[in-house]
Amino acid sequence: TLSAALAGQRYLVDPIANGSAADLRARFAEVLEVIVEAMATPLWIQNFRTEGWREQARLDDLGLGA
Questions:
Q1: Cα gap 40→42, rounded to integer Å
Q2: pLDDT tens string 7-57
Q3: Residue 27: CB partners within 8 Å, gap ≥ 6?
Q4: If DSSP codes are grouped into helix, strand and coil, which group holds residue 63?
Q5: CA-based, 20 to 30 A from 42: which of 1, 16, 19, 33?
Q6: Is the pTM of this model over 0.90?
Q7: Burial 22-48 (b: 16+ CB within 10 A, else e)
Q8: Which residues have C-beta within 8 Å of that of residue 1, sequence separation ≥ 6?
Q9: What angle do CA 44, 5, 31 make, to 5 degrees?
């Protein structure tokens, strides 16, 4: 979904904004936010809105086991 959104936005941004990378980044950030909010729990979203992305994430933090 994320790849399709980026491809579609790139397709639209080129003729509209003469390929402005800033516009593409803003549109991509909006789509990413929608996808993350659709998949995340309300508690995670609340935490994300106050703290944002962690600078370093470890695979162990996912709690998937060995």
A1: 7
A2: 887 777 666 656 566 677 777 778 888 888 889 999 988 888 888 766 666
A3: 9, 13
A4: coil
A5: 1
A6: no
A7: eebeebbeebeeeeeeeeeeeeeeeee
A8: 35
A9: 35
